[in-house]
């Protein structure tokens, strides 16, 4: 395993970099008008091909999109043009599918790596099988830390998971047992527990908000590297 690369940056004047970017181990979806330093930061940290898009004509890709190396889940509000752009920009055998849910902030509701997916209890039960097919993993329905936004309070890859400090020992054990990876608690951007809002990670590295401290970065490397 090489070095786990972490690149701190701010985007559009905010440290909430996680709301603008989705990444797996091959591709990153970033806003159409992304500044060069975001494109470069994503390439440097994650070693992925960058695809510039919008979702529902919005730059908030990191909120609307969830996925792993097997598939990408898009919200029902994605336009046909956007869907085509993502399909054309990715390999043919990557599942790129729209989730016909009334909920559109899929990143908040789906916590996934290449092994397992935890899907929020509020997601319509009849969609779980198709989500499982797209992601190529077992899907478990449930919540974490007394919250249904399971994807917003954990940053995960195939090596580990960094959870909000609000996580109880029971929450930590739940993630550890389900994903069979190491789990730590920590923050991003100088104390923010909604860790996914301030970071995007894959198995090679992460981008984090510019106000993330050295200690927070070390914790992330130790957990996901």
TrEMBL record:
Q: Is Protein biosynthesis among the key words of this record?
A: yes
Give the residue spans that cross the bilayer: none
Signal sequence region? none
Q: Which Pfam families match?
A: eIF-6 (PF01912)
Q: Tell me which InterPro entries the record gives.
A: eIF6 (IPR002769)
A single Gene Ontology molecular function, please?
ribosome binding
Q: Does Transcription regulation show up as a keyword for this record?
A: no
Q: Name one GO biological process term.
A: cytosolic ribosome assembly
Keywords, A to Z, come to: Initiation factor, Protein biosynthesis
Task: Provide the family line.
Answer: Belongs to the eIF-6 family.
- Which HAMAP family does the record match to this protein? eIF_6
NCBIfam families documented for this protein: eIF-6
As for what it does, the entry says:
Binds to the 50S ribosomal subunit and prevents its association with the 30S ribosomal subunit to form the 70S initiation complex.
Listed name of the protein: Translation initiation factor 6
Protein's organism: Thermocladium modestius
């Amino acid at each position: 395993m090489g070095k786990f690369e972490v690149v701190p940056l701010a985007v559009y004047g905010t440290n909430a970099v996680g709301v603008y970017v989705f990444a797996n181990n091959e591709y990153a979806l970033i806003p159409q008008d992304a500044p060069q330093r975001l494109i470069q930061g994503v390439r440097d940290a994650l070693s992925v091909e960058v695809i510039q898009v919008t979702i529902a004509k919005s730059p908030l890709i990191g909120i609307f999109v969830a996925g792993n190396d097997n598939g990408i889940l898009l919200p029902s509000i994605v336009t046909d043009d956007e869907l085509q752009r993502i399909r054309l920009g990715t390999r043919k055998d990557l599942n790129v599918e729209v989730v016909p849910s009334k909920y559109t902030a899929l990143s908040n509701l789906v916590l996934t790596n290449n092994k397992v997916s935890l899907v929020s209890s509020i997601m319509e039960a009849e969609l779980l099988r198709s989500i499982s097919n797209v992601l190529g993993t077992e899907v478990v329905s449930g919540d974490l830390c007394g919250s249904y936004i399971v994807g917003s309070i954990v940053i995960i890859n195939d090596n580990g998971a960094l959870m909000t400090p609000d996580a109880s020992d029971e929450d930590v054990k739940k993630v550890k047992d389900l994903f069979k990876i190491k789990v730590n608690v920590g923050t991003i951007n100088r104390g923010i527990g909604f860790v996914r809002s301030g970071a995007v990670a894959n198995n090679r590295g992460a981008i984090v908000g510019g106000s993330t401290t050295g200690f927070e970065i070390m914790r992330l490397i130790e957990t996901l590297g």
